[in-house]
Amino acid sequence: MKFIRRWGLMRNTYPESIQEHSQRVAVIAHALATIRNRLYGGHVDAGRTALLALYHDAGEVLTGDLPAPVKYFNPDIRSAYGRIERAAADRLFGMVPEALRADYRPLFLEDEADHTH
Predict the structure, then answer these.
(1) pLDDT in tens, 40-94
(2) Cβ-defined contacts of 109-116 (< 8 Å, 24+)
């Protein structure tokens, strides 16, 4: 993740790696979950939220980061890219030792309908 550059939407002067992006997303996700819990009476697992954020682009170690305008150009491309993301997640999960799969399944094969974090 450290050596795979992200496609910079804002064309920043500093290129960001997937690792840096994932760490920043995890910090923001954790902060938002904590704010929801402390200030708005929420019941969000801030640790799980941060952990999911760390892994949210893990498949890009296999696929790289496709530019957002390409990903979302039309519904057919978005659907095809979704299949690529799922295939990459399946492949990464396949590399996890059997004894650890129960722990890593939610990180790689998370159910999109599960918004209870």
Answers:
(1) 999 999 999 999 999 999 999 899 888 888 888 999 999 999 999 999 999 999 9
(2) 110/52
What confidence score (pLDDT) does residue 113 get? Answer: 46
Q: How far is the C-alpha of 112 from the C-alpha of 64, rounded, in Å?
A: 21
- Name the band, by pLDDT with cuts 50, 70 and 90, for residue 115: low
Rounded distance, CA 78 to CA 41, Å? Answer: 36
CB neighbourhood size of 24 (10 A): 12
N-to-C CA span, the chain: 24
Q: What is the CATH number of domain 18-108?
A: 1.10.3210.10
Q: Residue 2 gets which letter from DSSP?
A: T
Half-sphere exposure of 83 (CA within 13 A, CB side): 5
Task: Note whether 72 and 78 are within 8 A (CB).
Answer: yes
- Domain locations in the chain? 18-108
Judge contact between 37 and 44, C-beta under 8 A.
yes
